[in-house]
Design brief:
Layout (H helix, E strand, L loop, with lengths): L1 E2 L2 E3 L7 E3 L5 E11 L8 E9 L3 E6 L3 E4 L4 E3 L2 E4 L9 E3 H5 L3 E4 L4 E12 L5 E10 L10 E5 L3 E2 L11 H7 L4 H10 L2 H10 L2 H8 L4 H10 L2 H10 L2 H8 L4 H10 L2 H11 L6 H4 L6 E2 L5 H8 L6 H4 L1 E5 L10 E6 H6 L17 E2 L4 H10 L4 E5 L5 E6 H8 L19 E4 L5
Length: 430
């Protein structure tokens, strides 16, 4: 195996996994170690990798030809695509050990695990050899001393933890996309999942909640105090916040809505009034809206705003004042490709498209799907009886509601048939 002889496990998280041809197979999410008797350090038996479609599989350590700080490369052969499930005598290093409260044996000093190093012997056997721990000082203004110790010099690493924080795990997860972090949370035990979710800032937690199945969203929200829950709902897109609140009892809905800022709660309340399965129930109430006398340059600046999703940023809706939904009279749409072809000084009112009828809030999802597919659209305007723009249905929100309700739930997807249980890994000869 061409690799470093010692690697800290947290640094492996997120690394790309390649086959011998250089094709991306997935990304590392954790390291699997098997516990041994006699106080010996656990033996590393493989990695957990996440593949497309959110499937987590086991990569035996013997199948890996290269393991370093940049990537993981696999042998030629076949991979078992059965979904990974931890055995009773195994531990996941990142999930189970990071932030665990332990004791430094020589001094009796309490500490928390920051990272764990795996080291290869001369015969190629990998073990968890060293542990990086930070002493717990009990002082809020002072960080404890960081030490690197042998496995045997730390007690409390195995068995049920007395306590487990979140700081080191969050550092590992910090660069993940919200959808990938949502995957990680689904794999954690419920109590640990709620701890990690609560430690995220409001905006990050809002993004992650939008990627979780409804039952996990409800559980995490219920574990927060109500004021914090309301703050997180304010950071969510109004349509996603409305979908989440719709899963709660009416009384709890009203409590949380009353705790939200009125300007944030108002569009969510409006969305909750629409019938399920209609344009009103799936639309976003915050599309890009601009007046007809705005310039093309101003519109291009708006669609460049980084917080906008690609589907929302794909077009500008042009209306009379006011600009907040429900707006003044809806005039038409300007798609971003047309903006790129027009002079920057041109006015939006002179380049709008209005030859496709907008949706009514009561339009059912099958009809929306048919019309968006017919005209190759990524979003459609929704207007009320007086032609005021009240929102827009985007293709990503439409897909969320057309797919099975449990499509985000990792536990609901089966392992597949026997014929789907292996994948060939190329030889590099092409």
């Amino acid at each position: 195996m061409t690799t470093a002889s010692k690697i800290y496990v947290a640094r492996l998280a997120g690394l790309p996994v390649f086959d011998p041809n250089g094709d991306l197979v997935g990304r590392v999410r954790d390291t699997v170690a098997r516990m041994r008797v006699g106080g010996r350090p656990p033996q590393v038996v493989g990695l957990v990798a996440e593949m497309p479609m959110r499937r987590r599989i086991f990569l035996p350590i013997g199948r890996i030809t290269s393991l370093d700080a940049d990537s993981v490369v696999l042998h030629t052969g076949t991979l078992n695509l059965r979904r990974f499930s931890k055995r009773p005598d195994e531990l996941l290093v990142i999930e189970d050990l990071l932030d665990r409260r332990v004791t430094i044996t020589s001094s009796g000093q309490a500490a928390t695990v920051v990272d764990v190093a795996m080291e290869a012997s001369r015969v190629g056997e990998w073990t968890l050899h060293r542990v990086a721990v930070r002493e717990i000082t009990g002082r809020l203004t002072r960080r404890g001393h960081l030490q690197q110790l042998e496995w045997r010099e730390v007690s409390g690493l195995l068995g049920l933890p007395d306590a487990q924080g979140t700081a080191s795990l969050l550092a590992v997860l910090d660069q993940m996309r919200p959808a990938d972090l949502a995957n990680v949370l689904q794999d954690l035990p419920a109590s640990r999942r709620n701890e990690v979710a609560a430690a995220l800032d409001d905006e990050r937690l809002a993004d992650v909640l939008e990627e979780l199945p409804e039952h996990d969203q409800v559980e995490i929200l219920a574990a927060l105090d109500r004021e914090r829950a309301a703050d997180v709902l304010e950071e969510m897109d109004p349509d996603d916040a409305a979908d989440l609140l719709a899963e709660l009892p009416k009384v709890e809905q009203e409590v949380l809505l009353d705790l939200m800022e009125p300007d944030e709660a108002s569009p969510v309340r409006a969305l909750l009034h629409y019938l399920p399965g209609t344009a009103g129930s799936v639309m976003t109430s915050e599309p890009i809206v601009m007046p007809p006398d705005a310039t093309v340059a101003e519109a291009l600046a708006r669609i460049r705003e980084p917080q906008l999703s690609p589907a929302v940023a794909a077009q500008v809706f042009v209306t009379r004042s006011p600009m907040a939904t429900p707006t003044g009279r809806f005039l038409g749409v300007v798609h971003f490709q047309k903006l790129l072809r027009e002079p920057p000084s041109g006015l939006l009112g002179g380049v709008i498209d209005n030859d496709i009828d907008p949706l009514d809030a009561a339009t059912p999802l099958p009809e929306i799907t048919r019309r968006m597919a017919t005209y190759d659209l990524v979003a459609m305007p929704v207007v009320d009886a007086t032609d005021r723009l009240v929102g827009a249905v985007t293709v990503d929100d439409l897909l969320d509601h057309l797919l099975p309700r449990d499509w985000r739930d990792r536990a609901s997807s089966g392992a597949g048939s026997g014929a789907e249980m292996t994948m060939a890994v190329g030889s590099g000869d092409g």
